Amino acid sequence: MVDNGDGTITVRTAVTGIPSEVLLSDGTVAFKDVGRVFANVIDYHGTPTDTSDDEFISQTIESISGPHPNLESNFTLLCEVVVPALT
Fold it and tell me: DSSP class of residue 71?
């Protein structure tokens, strides 16, 4: 966590493993995204120990490792794959 000095903090979150995987009904992996590190900026409204009033400001991706087809499609791949599979 980094105090940005303007009433906001930056929290870096590393996601390991497979945060996103879509399996079709026959067990085929339609796609999966693997591992990344996010930086989230949060306004904590002067109360760092009270998360109930925190406000999400922004999120950036600082590091990418592995395949990320859903992320690279701006998260449209999910609909492109799932909707036809459900109809």
Answer: H
